[in-house]
Design brief:
Elements (H helix, E strand, L loop, with lengths): L1 H7 L15 H4 L16 H7 L7 H17 L1 H8 L3 H17 L3 H18 L2 H16 L8 H13 L3 H8 L3 H10 L3 H14 L3 H6 L1 H18 L3 H14 L3 H16 L12 H9 L4 H17 L1 H10 L2 H8 L5 H14 L4 H4 L2 H16 L5 H17 L10 H15 L4 H14 L12 H20 L9 H35 L21 H26 L3 H17 L4 H10 L2 H12 L6 H20 L9 H14 L7 H8 L7 H19 L7 H17 L6 H18 L4 H12 L12 H9 L1 H18 L4 H6 L10 H12 L3 H11 L2 H17 L6 H18 L11 H14 L8 H15 L6 H16 L3 H12 L2 H12 L10 H21 L7 E4 H9 L6 H16 L7 E4 L9 H4 L6 H15 L4 H21 L1 H8 L2 H11 L9 H12 L8 H13 L7 H16 L6 H21 L6 E4 L2 E4 H5 L1
Length: 1273
Amino acid sequence: MAVREMAAGPPGPGRDEEAALLFERAHYRHDPRWLLPVPPRLCLACALELLPEPGVSLVRKKHVLSCFRDALIRHTSLITQLVAQDQRVCIHFISTLFGLLCSTEDGSTADLCIEVLIQLITQLKLEQTIHCLLDECHRELCNMPSMRGSLATLTLLGKLVDAIPALADTLVMEHGNLMEHLLRGLVYPSEGVQASVCYLYGKLYAAPVAAEMLSGHFREKLCPLFLSTLDSAQTKELQINCLGLLRQLLKYDLFVTMIMNKSALLESAESVEGPPRETSLPLVLKKLLLSRDETLQVASVHCITAVLVHSPVKHAQAFIHADIPEFLFERLSSSSEVLIWSVYSCLILLAEEPLFFSKCHTVYGIESVVRSLQGSLKVSNTELHKQGLLLFAEILTRQPEEIKLFTSSAMCRDAGRVLQEAVSSPVLEVAAEAVKATSAFLRKDHQSSPPVQYRELRALVEAMLSRCADLSQTPLNRRPLGHTSSRDLDKAILRRGKFLQSTLEGFQNACRLAVEFQSEPLAQENPFTAPSAEKEDTLEAFSEFLLSTYDSLCVPMVMRHSEQATHPALMEVFFSTLHSLFVIVPHMREKFSKKLAASSFIRLTVELKARFCSGLSHSALNQVCSSFLYYMCLNLLSTPEKTRPPSQEELSAVSELLQHGLPQINSRGPESLAFLSDRQYVEETARKRQYCILILFYLAYIHEDRFVLEAELFGAVQSFLLSLQDQGECPPPVVFRASIYLLAVCQDKDGALDEVSVSAIRKFLEDIPDLHLVYTHHSSMLKFFLLYPVLMSRFGHRVLELWFSWEEISYEELDCVPSAGQPTLPAGLAALFLILRSSPSILLILLDLIYSSPMDIARKVLIVLRTFLRRNEDVQVGGLIRGHFLLILQHLLVEYGPSTSGASGNLPLLLSLLSLVQLRSESEQELDSMAMKLLHQVSKLCGKCSPTDVAILQPSFNFLYWSLHQTTPCSRQRAAAVLLSSTALMELLEKLLVLTWAKVGSPGTELLCSAWLLTTSLSAQQHRSSLQVHQTLSVELDQVLNVLSFPKKQAALLSAAIVRFLRTALQQGFSSALVVLVPSGARPPPVPEDTVLAPLGTSQVLSLVIGLQNLLVQKDPLLSQSCVSCLEALLDYLHARSPDVALHVASQPWNRFLLFTLLDAGENSFLRPEVLRLMTLFVRFQSSSILSHEEVGHVLQEAALADLSALSSTTLQALRGFFLQVRSMGLLADPSTAQTLQASLEGLLAQASSAQPPLQDMLCLGGVAVSLSHIRD
């Protein structure tokens, strides 16, 4: 009894502590080896017998377990060796501890048992003991009628698998039916048991093999049960364990798909009525996201992120439909950096789904993002800064243009200021992300308009560039020793290059923004700016800021960086931005191009292409550099300073040449010179490449960028020209201009040209229409042409004329300086004086210039000659020029007189001036004797010309035509008589008229137009005044009719002129004494009904009508009115000879189609004069099938309702004629409408005739003199 009490109860207060660790009743039987030799002095055999003993108190058992745990921790090796000596003892010890675990109801004891078991199992590492414990656990769970007491076993299993992860596979494979018990535990109404089950599940699914084996279990049984448990969890322990299990599941794409598919099915069934249904994962996580527990919020966000990581495209929509983004944005107001960072990461993944933007979640949440960034930038968490800016950049980049992100100017301003603060961050990684976000922010749809806050945009761009400048100016740590330091230096340079590239990309977007705003009037300036305020907040100011900043800051930064390293991607952005700057400030592009060229950018670009773009490498960089060179060259060529601007045709040809040739130039200067010097046969593609190289050298040298040696370039250009001569080719003018200029500026470095080269140059120059096409103003160019006698004799006159026209000298001041003053001469004039001293014979060319050049150039030459003679009294040239000067002066006074001052000595120019003066003279002016003499001389001059002398004939014919039409009837009769007396002129006109239908040898449409118009005018005046005819003009009538009946592609004015000629012939009844219309060869005898229409036939009449109809539908105003007038004359001619034929022609069904085609030209198209006259004609000939009485009435009603005050006098006259014709035919159905219309017309016509003069009748259309009334009326 005493022994039992001693064993059952704790020792007394005075008993030794070690005695409590011994089971004294049985200890004497135990082998001493089971007694630990170190404290605590625990006998393992006693422990085995004491722990299952029911009479031993729980406190003593806990004490023994605690001591054993401490011994196991402190003396692991000793304990494991002792226990492992006997396998049976080991298994028995495990069973005893497990039995105590299952039998105790004290939670702390159970925890202690679990801890000891886990430590013992993990230290022993014996498979038999592990399987023994697993079997015990399995047996315990199987024998348990309910899950009430399963908590300890489940907890043990969970922690055991946690300690030994490999047990997960064993547990699933060998104890698979345990899963059913776990499912029972998951539905047991105890959240502690459920938490243990979720914990164990989490450890099982953490093992890939076990997870794969449990996939079917999860799909069929666990998935809905687990989601329901997570949704209904109340305790934090269960919530955490559920989320832990979920995190493990979400690591596998298979389980993510199962869970999200299950959720999708549940969401699709939400509208179906019935009992409460299972919940979906998005809704569960949304519920946790709304909890006030920060840990659960973070875990929820992590789970959403874990799902999206697998595939945002597949799974983002489910969370978006659950309005998860809305609540994520709300969580950004938290003070927890962990939560904010997690939300940033999650939103970045959601932003990959377009639905995220289309449902306007970004519009809802952008304010939260901006405010969150404002707060985040105040803390020192750089990872948080980077993640937030990354999210901001994603939103700004992916936001659809049609959905405006910033709904107010204030929010847009706040966003810009946040970015401004972020780009100024001292942490390079943060600043780099901020620059990317800034680049995305600089988008048109992100800016509020109106007003666009250009001042804020400017501040943002300045901050971005300032941060980049600070980085570029930070000295690099250059260590002279070690490969490691060299690699670090390379990395630092690479980081700078990437940051500089991102900055340039942002600047490029700012440039693109400025270009896009140019097409929006409301974005030009801030409408709320006071009128008196300085216009800083305007698009123009912002554009000029971009140009000046790039010029003063970005270009130097890139140049400094390129000295350390040249990155193709960086240079691609750099040149692309330079290209865009040409468009931003259009009025500055020429000036900017010249500055770039003067800053050696041609050399820089060519060398960059040669370095990186050989072959097919870096094609994008090659394209960008070529495009930049293309536009810069075009800007320089289109507005040259030292040569004439090219024509549109030349510019188009050069544009095509550069566009195709520049991408192929990927060689350095010496290689390009060698390519130019190649005298072997050159293919067309290679030749065009040579052309481009010469243009680049030419533009570079003009702007003092001489990046190849002059002597080598001089020889290369010579070889190039000789190669052209050998192959019989002629270069384009711009290429030859470049060649001549380069030879001129380089000749001092390499001596003079040989005779072969000079001869080749002369031949090329002789093939050029005018020297100004290849002239570039430079003193070396003048010296070049005057140095070689062969060139001076042939081209000296023109070169000097061009030189004087380009040389900018204050000649008045030069002429007023007395000879004693001897001021310093300009460089160009000093060079000319040196040439004159060496070759006095050039003075004769200057004298010819005084005679033949325009007055301004002639006056310049006079002043220069006078100054030269004053300064060079020793040069004896008085006898050379004294005899010619008086003759030249007399000729100028007599030939041109004061009224034609400034007339050129060139005959075509003089004639053009005469015709221009005639055009601007007053109409109905009598021709005086001087005018008649000019008329006579011009007619004689024309008579001496051939049809190919277009340059002389065109202005001459213009002058003659205007002289006939801009004078009084009496003078017109005298002028016509003078012209008719010139037999040579009449013969020339006949030749020109025949050339109209000639297949070859046509002199040009303009001259033919003038010939027909002049012939028509002379024929009409001769017929009207019965003037004497000295030479008749024969014209083939069939050819005239064919040209009009079957019109080909020809100018409308030429067709109008021929129609006017035919109309005159019809009005004269083909009885003109001047113009004889002859048949084109043998014709069959006419049928009886054609005799009365002679010389026309019925078929010819119908063909002519169809031809006139075809010309009418071209809807050219002048041609249309001429055709209507011709139709009137034709019907009058037919009516006078055969009224039936006239009515037949007027009633053709095609006339109605023609009329409605003309009426289909737009609103109120019937109020065009040609349409009104055509309807008048149909009414006159009673063609009711063409224009019915009802339609006539409708036209009058519409005319009465129209705003007649806006019509021209010609249209009013035509409308009045239509009205009077309708009234005379008795077709006025509505007297009141007719009366109102008549009153309006008469009032407007009277007002128009008295209020303002008529529109100008005499015009020059495409170089052809035209009288509108002559063609129209």
